Amino acid sequence: MKKIQLICDCCGKEVPLPTGGEVALWTIRVSLSSSDYESPFRQKKAEWCRECIERVGMLPPIELEEKELPIPTPPSFEDLVRIIIREENAR
Ligand SMILES: [Zn+2]
User: Fold this and answer.
1) How are the residues of the chain apportioned to helix, strand and coil, as percentages rounded to the nearest 5?
2) What does pTM read for this prediction?
3) Which residue, 53, 61, 4, 62, is CA-closest to 27?
4) Could you tell me the distance, in angstroms and rounded to a whole number, from the CA of residue 26 to the centre of ligand 1?
5) d(CA 47, ligand 1 centre) in Å
6) Rounded distance from Cα 21 to ligand 1 centre (Å)
7) Ligand 1 centroid vs 63 CA: distance in angstroms?
8) What is the whole-number distance in angstroms between the Cα of residue 43 and the centre of ligand 1?
9) Are the C-beta atoms of 14 and 5 separated by less than 8 Å?
10) Distance of CA 23 to the CA centre of its chain
11) 53 alpha carbon to ligand 1 midpoint, in Å?
């Protein structure tokens, strides 16, 4: 038998498995580099729950996000063509 557990790397809390299209854990990446040519590039990655993401201010509370942000309408084919033409003309 397999048992899948989703655990937040920040608070250690178990997160329920997603049932629909929601995100259970968010990937956080932190990288470090400097202008020194020989300085190594370092990167850390972790998976955090929504509560931890909200606590550090990277996303608004989900209640606000649902109220303030309308569901985005995907651009139509014509819109995409206009965007591509505008970008080509700008070059
Ligand atoms: Zn957490």
Assistant:
1) 30, 20, 50
2) 0.60
3) 53
4) 10
5) 8
6) 19
7) 18
8) 20
9) yes
10) 9
11) 7
The two structure tokens encoding residue 36: 């020194």
Please check the confidence at residue 44 and state whether its pLDDT lies above 70.
Answer: yes
What span, in angstroms and rounded, lies between the C-alpha atoms of 56 and 8?
Answer: 14
SS3 of residue 6 by DSSP: strand
Pull the structure tokens for residue 79: 């819109």
pLDDT of 38: 83
DSSP 8-state secondary structure symbol assigned to residue 67: H
Residue 51 Cα to ligand 1 middle (Å): 6
The rounded distance, in Å, linking the Cα atoms of 34 and 21 is: 38
